[in-house]
Amino acid sequence: MKLNKENKLSNDELEQVAGGHCGNSYKDMQRAYDRQMPGFENMDPSNIATMVYCLKNWDKVVGELKNMFAQYGIEMTYKSDPLEDNLYMYQGRRITDGQAWQILDSQRNP
Fold first, then answer.
1. Tens of pLDDT along 48-66?
2. At 88, which helix (H) or strand (E)?
3. Apex CA 17: angle with CA 73 and CA 4, to 5°?
């Protein structure tokens, strides 16, 4: 794995790091960073230092993602099984990660 001159990973390299059971959580972290959500505004997932931090503090990062979603009435359950996606619930029904972000965005930007 090589870093570019800005100390960032390519998308292909990120897929290797974020594959398997943490794929949903990585995508959520990327979306949170892109939206500059509190707590994620400095956590650029394409930066190697961020990924090293995440790998060393994965439970804490997932906990922060859960708390972020909870502020918008969304319950996120992290699935550590590589064959399972994370579970997102809203008002008692299962939703996709994309729907979770639509809800979050609609509440942030009414």
1. 899 888 888 888 998 999 9
2. strand 87-90
3. 115
